[in-house]
Design goal:
The chain has two helices and eight strands. A hairpin with a 5-residue loop joins strand 3 and strand 4. It has 137 residues and is of the alpha/beta class.
Length: 137
């Protein structure tokens, strides 16, 4: 397998609904493994997600997990997950789903550099940037 770079998002106990939400947004195959399945049955975090991976038909891979016991959860940080391309209908569809129930900081609209761009934070507190460029011929 070739090397790849993909986001890995930490959650504070809501990794399962967040990853299921992203599956609704992007489609694809979602695999979820709990702490209980990984050797911690009977613990308070047994049903929390130790590792989740979503692989989509568009070739995206998004990973996420609940913060393990003993580690500090640090929400947000200084990052955004960025989606970009020239398939306007696909990217607008992602935008509509990601921004629903979240907060829009920059509306998805034409910007001074010519692309359509927007920024939002989804209902799980994850920041997203969407950039729609001109169609490549």
């Amino acid at each position: 397998m070739a090397s790849r770079l993909n986001p890995y998002i930490s959650f504070d106990g809501d990794a399962r609904p967040a990853m299921e939400f992203y599956k609704e947004v992007f489609g694809g195959t979602l695999a979820l493994n709990t702490f209980g399945e990984a050797g911690a049955p009977g613990t308070p975090e047994a049903d929390q997600i130790m590792h989740g991976m979503l692989e989509t038909p568009s070739g995206f891979t998004l990973m996420g997990a609940d913060t393990p016991p003993g580690m500090e959860y640090t929400p947000g940080g200084n990052f955004s997950v960025s989606l970009s391309g020239d398939d306007e209908s696909e990217l607008r569809g992602y935008w509509e789903k990601l921004s629903a129930g979240g907060t829009v900081s920059v509306p998805l609209e034409k910007q001074m550099w010519g692309d359509v761009f927007g920024m939002c934070t989804d209902r799980f507190g994850i920041p997203w940037m969407v950039n729609i460029g001109p169609a490549q011929h």
